[in-house]
Amino acid sequence: MTVRSAAEGADDPRTQDLKNALVRTRERIAAAAEAAGREADEVELLVVTKYFPADDVVRLIDLGEREFGESREPEASRKVAAVRAERSDISFTTDMIGSVQRKKAGSVARWARRVHSVDSLKLVEAFDGAATRALDAGERSTALDVLLQVSLDGDPGRGGLPAVELAAAADRVLACPSSLRLDGLMLIAPLGMEPDAAMSRLAHIHSDFVRRYPGAVELSAGMSGDMESAIAHGSTCVRVGTAIMGPRPILSL
Ligand SMILES: *Cc1c(COP(=O)(O)O)cnc(C)c1O
């Protein structure tokens, strides 16, 4: 493992690029929050490191970041383990933000703080079983936070539940209080919809949802291209990849 040597040194050019990109991204978040009359610290920045190596996560940790997002198994499990081995004295969290096959729920429940992309009753059931097993085995110490992914256009390729199906899924999460916690809603804005239109619809769905589920205040919305609009409409967590990491590498498998 060459992680430590690759990430060491403040003059490492990749570390400098990441540092500059983090500053620019935090400036965007702060400006968007100010424009919306909100505090910048109401919006969590999840740095999305999918497709990028563990070395980059170590660099980000050394730059002070502690909250990450991953979207693919087993890439995420391996990377979290590699980073933990390199920075065993630092606690950091990783959220699952991508679509999850039910058979992968078991491995995701071992490392994920939250899952943003729960979009079926069957997946809620799979995570109930998976989180229960991980808690019993001492592989996690807290219930798994669940966000329900909303679909505004029914596009199965992007996942998500139509708004009318959210309550059934939320009730199913609340029926598993020892393994799951209902955290809020998540959106990947539909292709071809104006971000402001999408985020404004999401904000209405979320305010109805919070009226019924008062604890579920989190709203995970906004990526590199649409974070300003998401923050204007109440996002509490932006998931930013490209604007910090650069274009995703094409992996040769
Ligand atoms: C990759 C990904 C992101 C980050 O997207 P960027 O446009 O690169 O910022 C956010 N959310 C999800 C669910 C993703 O898969």
List the helices and strands and how they pair.
Layout: H1 3-7, H2 13-35, E1 44-48, H3 54-62, E2 67-70, H4 75-86, E3 93-96, H5 105-111, E4 112-118, H6 121-136, E5 144-150, H7 166-174, E6 180-187, H8 195-212, E7 218-220, H9 227-232, E8 237-240, H10 242-245
Helix pairs in contact: 3-4, 5-6, 6-7
Residues 48, 50, 71, 97-98, 188, 223-225, 239-243 line the site of pyridoxal-5'-phosphate.
Task: Just give the CATH class.
Answer: Alpha Beta
> Over all CA atoms, what is the radius of gyration?
18 Å
Structural class: alpha/beta
Spatial order of strands in the largest sheet = 7-6-5-4-3-2-1-8
| CATH fold category name | TIM Barrel
The end-to-end distance, rounded to whole angstroms, is 20 Å
| Count of domains | 1
- On the 0 to 100 scale, the average pLDDT is 94
Can you describe what's shown?
With 253 residues, the chain is α/β, with parallel strands linked by helices. The protein has a single domain (12-245), classed as Alanine racemase (TIM Barrel), CATH 3.20.20. The protein has helices spanning 3-7, 13-35, 54-62, 75-86, 105-111, 121-136, 166-174, 195-212, 227-232, 242-245; strands at residues 44-48, 67-70, 93-96, 112-118, 144-150, 180-187, 218-220, 237-240. The chain has an eight-stranded parallel sheet. Helix 3 (54-62) packs across helix 4 (75-86) and helix 5 crosses helix 6 (121-136). It is globular and about 50 Å long. It starts with a helix and ends in an 8-residue tail after the last helix. Pyridoxal-5'-phosphate (PLP) binds at residues 48, 50, 71, 97-98, 188, 223-225, 239-243.
